[in-house]
User: Fold this.
Amino acid sequence: MPAHSFIVIEGNIGAGKTSLATMYARHIGSRLILEEFAENTFLPKFYENPERYAFPVELSFLSERFSQLKKELLARDLFTPAVVADYFISKCQIFARNNLVPDEYELFLKMYEMVESSIPKPDLLVYLYLPVEQLQMNIRKRGRPYEQQITDRYLEDIQRQYIEFIRQHEDLRVLIVDTADVDFVGDLRHTERMFDLLRGEWPVGVSRVKA
Assistant:
């Protein structure tokens, strides 16, 4: 039986959250929830023109994430009791706070608060920390055209919003993992190290480790 029945792997753009979530879910035989961002037609437009498309992209993500998480988390069964996801509903607030102007953010927050409370909290929230230069390397490597213009400043801002969110939610069980010197996709020793961390019994609050 896995140590945590609902684990979320979070991180900045290019941190490797989808890769790790996929690998760990396969390893423990759990259900896997991956964000379906590829269907969001506003995302490429947002990167081209943030001021115009920030509000519609954040609203569309809120709708899509809420719909997927509600469906997937309510569909648990006895044969696959554990769930691993590569995002959580709180991601909506984190990005909206960074991307929206104050009046848009206040309107967004009202809608977010109506749906957030109906989504179960994760038993363990893992945040993969990587320096911006390594995030940019990963972004270039995976080659999504609309991501290639993401600036260092934008990644720094998102990283700061994640850390601020974590500081404000010490009621959650959060593990911040510094993966700057880790290749958990290509090095089996590093993979096993990450799996050990994900299986660990961590206290409520924020724990920090270097993988």
